[in-house]
Amino acid sequence: MMVHSIEQKKLFPLESEIPAEFQIKEPICQSEFLINGQLREWNGPTQEVFSPIYIQNTDGSLSKKYLGCYPLLSEETVLEVLNAAVKAYDNGKGLWPTMPVTERIQHMQEFVRRMKSEKEEIVKLLMWEIGKTYQDSVKEFDRTVDYICGTIDAVKELDRVSSRFLIEEGIIGQVRRSPMGVTLSMGPFNYPLNETFTTLIPALIMGNTVICKPPKLGTLLYRPLLAIFKDCFPAGVINFVYGRGSNIISPLMSSGKIDVLAFIGTSKIADTIKKQHPKPHRLRSVLGLDAKNPAIILPDADLDLAVKECLLGTLSYNGQRCTALKLLFVHQAVAEDFLTKLAAALNDLTIGMPWDPKVQITPLPEGDKTKYLSELVSDAVNLGAKLINENGGTAFESIFSPALLYPVSEKMRVYHEEQFGPIIPVVPFDDVATPIRYIEESNYGQQVSIFSKNPNEIASLVDPLVNQVSRVNINSQCQRGPDIFPFTGRKDSAEGTLSVSDALRVFSIRTLVAAKENENNKELLAEIIQERKSNFLSTDFIF
Ligand code: G3H
């Protein structure tokens, strides 16, 4: 079904129309949670989970597919989970934080080996819980496996460069990275597996103990992994909590026992969580937050390329990426051509169900999202913008047809708010100072895309922009990957830098053991090394 013909109810399938391999035959009622190396039964309240995908009933009505439920833990239980993580860390004396790196790597290798066997189930749940297309769900799973393997390689490399002594100014020293303590890891709904794992995995492998709270949307897909986590890591090293933030996150933070907060979500929630820690200077935060990445299309841009990249940038996973292009600045001289080409490309998109390989636009998982997006469109239209594409902005249940809005101005909400959905606001400009001013005045500072064939134009924009955002993309959309590249942001967009290797640094601290260079100390150190008496003081080389 094309975007220009939202035939309402027919968008959603009858149960019998769902391909057999993607059907959820029985609801998944998760009654267990992972605490201290045990899958403990929970008999308290639970959260029901409904898919953003509606099913046509035989009487013609629609209802959201019921997927199952998961525990809503009490404050008391969450504090028990905290104690398990604190005990497993044991002020750095625990089995895991003192374990040789080679052994921690073996645990992680076993985990990733077993995780691969759950691919089919996790991919299916990604589709049902958050409406991500099959292809993108597979990509998310595979990218996560690659991230874990890349992390293992990066840990080996980090250990190799630390496996020697330095002698400076009469002092012998060995410098390594040590864990920080108990990490709280929370990911977002749009990459519920991948982004959560980009903090959880490096935190674990560096010797921290972890409490993970899966995103509210995208929780059930963790269930197949719980037993694997239980089997592959010592008791208390990895634990899971579920429930509303105010009930479960506040007690964790206000205990003062969380050493690292790894959070990917909004800056507003990050600020609320951080403030709950009684000693903020003791808390290390690793945050991936909001963004409103602009594209700047200059008059000499290759318009076909710009349209292709802007389409991907604005609408991949319905625009629900922190790195999505959320405002397009197009030079007046090419605005008409650009809009014509983009509207034609939008017309060729297909709306439908995530398992259909022809589909790009799928149901939105956040409740009331289509209402919010409709409000943004109405506000822009009331203030003078036009809907350029046929049927743009049509909403039906959880589906929202992409809306190309032009001309957008700073009076409109969509100029400022992170829509996180399929709205494409286009702002015309005459002078490149206009988009630069937008970037300077913005609360966000993640990335920008610039489109031009002229090296002088590109160079003159790169130099000011690299001091405003953290990645300038030339003739391409904004994106996080490849995962070995640094991913961060300025202002309200991030705190700390993540990448396969940078993440190992943010979840650890440089620590050294030093001794004056005299005969007694040399003999003492030599004996420790030769007789392998310490895991820290060691010159073993990991192959
Ligand atoms: O939502 C933010 C993600 O980190 C974006 O990742 O640019 O690879 O889609 P991506």
Present the secondary structure layout.
Blueprint (H helix, E strand, L loop, with lengths): L27 E2 L2 E4 L2 E4 L4 E11 L5 E10 L3 H15 L5 H4 L2 H16 L2 H12 L3 H29 L3 E3 L2 E9 L2 E5 L7 H12 L3 E5 L9 H10 L5 E3 L4 H10 L5 E5 L2 H9 L8 E5 L4 E5 L5 H13 L9 E7 H16 L21 H14 L3 E2 L7 E2 L2 E2 L2 E4 L6 H4 L6 E7 L3 H9 L2 E2 L1 E5 L3 H11 L5 E4 L15 E2 L2 E2 L6 H5 L1 E9 L2 H12 L13
Parallel strand pairs: 1-5, 8-9, 8-11, 9-10, 11-12, 13-14, 13-21, 14-19, 18-19, 21-22
Antiparallel strand pairs: 2-3, 4-5, 6-7, 7-25, 12-24, 15-18, 16-17, 20-23
Helix pairs in contact: 1-8, 3-5, 3-7, 4-5, 5-6, 10-11
The protein binds glyceraldehyde-3-phosphate.
Glyceraldehyde-3-phosphate binds next to loops.
Give a short account of the largest sheet: 7 strands, mixed
Structural class: alpha/beta
Query: How are the strands ordered across the major sheet?
Result: 15-18-19-14-13-21-22
- Which homologous superfamily in CATH is the superfamily of the largest domain? Aldehyde Dehydrogenase, Chain A, domain 1
> Which CATH top level class of the largest domain fits?
Alpha Beta
Q: List each distinct ligand once.
A: glyceraldehyde-3-phosphate
Radius of gyration: 25 Å
| CATH architecture verdict of the largest domain | 3-Layer(aba) Sandwich
Mean pLDDT: 97
What is the fold named in CATH at topology level of the largest domain?
A: Aldehyde Dehydrogenase, Chain A, domain 1
Q: Any idea how many domains? A: 2
Q: Work out the strand percent.
A: 15-25%
Low-pLDDT stretches are 1-5
Distance between the termini: 53 Å
Shape verdict: globular
Secondary structure: number of strands: 25
Instruction: Indicate the percent of residues in helices.
Output: 25-40%
**Tally of separate helices:** 17
